[in-house]
Amino acid sequence: MRRVTVVGSGVIGLSIAHEFAAAGDEVTVVADADVAHSVSTVAAAVWFPYLGEVSPRVTGWLTRSLARYRAVALDDSAGVDLRLGTVIERTAHPDRSWMPVVAGAREADVLPAGALSGVRATVPVITTGVYGEWLTARCRGLGVRFEVRAVASVDEFAGGADLVVVAGGLRSGALLGDDDSVVPVRGQVVRLENPGLTEWFIDDDNPDGLTYVVPRRDDIVCGGVSELGATSLEVDPATERAILERATALVPELAGLRIVSRGVGLRPARPTVRLERVDGRAVPVIACYGHGGSGVTLSWGCAEAVVELASAV
Ligand SMILES: Cc1cc2nc3c(=O)[nH]c(=O)nc-3n(C[C@H](O)[C@H](O)[C@H](O)COP(=O)(O)OP(=O)(O)OC[C@H]3O[C@@H](n4cnc5c(N)ncnc54)[C@H](O)[C@@H]3O)c2cc1C
Known about the structure:
globular, alpha/beta, Rossmann fold, binds flavin-adenine dinucleotide, 7 helices, 313 residues, six-stranded mixed β-sheet, nine-stranded mixed β-sheet, 15 strands
């Protein structure tokens, strides 16, 4: 049994903690905010790669994550539902690297004006508030302990842990002090009451701006924006009006629905996900961060990969 400390209780940290604990390790999660107050809870969240690396290893993580989410969806209390929706494509060569991963994904035959092509697929839709609570409870059930505090250096854990995993999202590079390539990409969403819609739409290349509509169990998430380097966590009313306009143009049934909540989050973007050993510390360290707009999507696959890497530490 190893003593593993995971820094971060977003979807990445919790998934990693879950996997180590399930393997029989003694796990402590240290974070200065719980999952309900993390970027992970602001996420829409639909299983789909956005704003991140396209590579064979990512395809592997997508495949593994999808299989895990399908299994999790069998437990109704997890807040994960398999739902049909459409990815709208407006460029001549859209990235379809994710498509072979999803059984049954097919060409869309009904498209909005201006779209060149599209894909219909059934993928997990994650009601993040419910899922975060479920995942935390699963971790606790496996014996994971939680500490609420800020971590200034991974060296703090020397002597008290056999392995530290840094899963601190946007602040991971600063915590490790050797990586300034993580940048915030601001997102904003407005959530509407859901009268019973289930079908999601992703329209990343909408000429009027990034647009998505994700009906979840308790609301419909409408987005969005993708503002590189912006750090304001305030809801911008003009952005919200524009999001609602685009979303309603895409899904006319949204017109007149009551706004139930709003959210802003900073995606932890990096040219590539950092999932590797970090040498030269007072304790063995593995980094796992920089998932951009795909952290929920990649979480289980990355968590499995971290546990595999740990067996070589
Ligand atoms: C509007 C919006 C929509 C999105 N939609 C989707 C989607 O549909 N699908 C999808 O897959 N992804 C989506 N994302 C992206 C997704 O939210 C992120 O990729 C994901 O949440 C990153 O998870 P994380 O655990 O790495 O980081 P976070 O959720 O930010 O968690 C980081 C954790 O680390 C802790 N921490 C950091 N530094 C320290 C420190 N020094 N000391 C102590 N604790 C520390 C924090 O307290 C927190 O607990 C969306 C994001 C936004 C903003």
